[in-house]
Amino acid sequence: MNHDKMIVEIEGRQVERIEYKDHPVITLRMIDELHERPEGTAKNSFHRYEDKLIENEDFFRVPYKEWSKILSVQNMYRSKTALIFLTESGYLMIVKPFGDDLAWKVQRALVRNYFAAREMLRGASSVYDPEIKAFLKETVALLGSFRKELASIRNGLERSRDIDRELPYLMQQAVHLISEVREELAQTRKERDLFRDRLFILQDHIEKGTSDPEASEITCSYTSAESSETRSGDEHAHEHETLKDFIAVWWRTFGNDRVGVSHLYPLIKEHSIPLNLVGGTDRSRSICLGRKLTAICGQRFGDCIVTEAKKWRNVKRYSLCRVIGEG
To answer: Which end of the chain is more exposed for a tag (fewer CB within 10 A), N or C?
Structure first.
């Protein structure tokens, strides 16, 4: 039973179309109203020709539990008895006696507008149904594909934005690392060449049996190194005190924050701390400070212990741990 609501116009009247078992049907009361006949006229005509009509082809005998589900019919009847629903063929048979001008107009309007309307729509739609279904299927597939592509593009844009944000820093770090590597390589090559030249000179004088001032310098350097060990204790104590002063300034400035060498090196210059840092440039002295801090990690200076903190973007950082009252 179809519950789609469809209104058709019959001789100036708005009539709601009724369907039963996929057939357009009309009630006896509707016939009386449309043909402007006294109530019961169509009913009498139906009973007169009932023996000529075929049930389930020309008419349906519909029980209450079924017709009560059709709102327009429910509003038309108050009883709970079975109703007669006439198909197009049944309708045309029982209105044969209606021969007035209005009857012909109503019959023509019902046949064209009421009984044929849905068939016309159904026929037209059935022709295009396969094309519509194919189009909808293709559209759904395209939408799914577009959705995936949009998600991929969105993810790509997010990654691109992340790279754009990180690129300047990464380039800066790369330049910094390349500079450090070049500096280390240059220093290593210089020391290697110097040591090799001295060895060649020493070998030449050994073969000639002569003494060499530079060889004497090498010997003296080892001798002075041995003698310097006697002074290393005092120098170590002095450096420890210097580091202690530096770390006190560090604590006052940054507390237990995680900081890098780029934050700490300026403190040495600002407070004129006589920390022994090798190198003629700020860069080389900063590198030396970083090595020195790494070497003293875990050691205590005054009330603080130097610790190595979590790296930030592959840059080593340090922090202080306060240990007041211990030791």
So the answer is: C
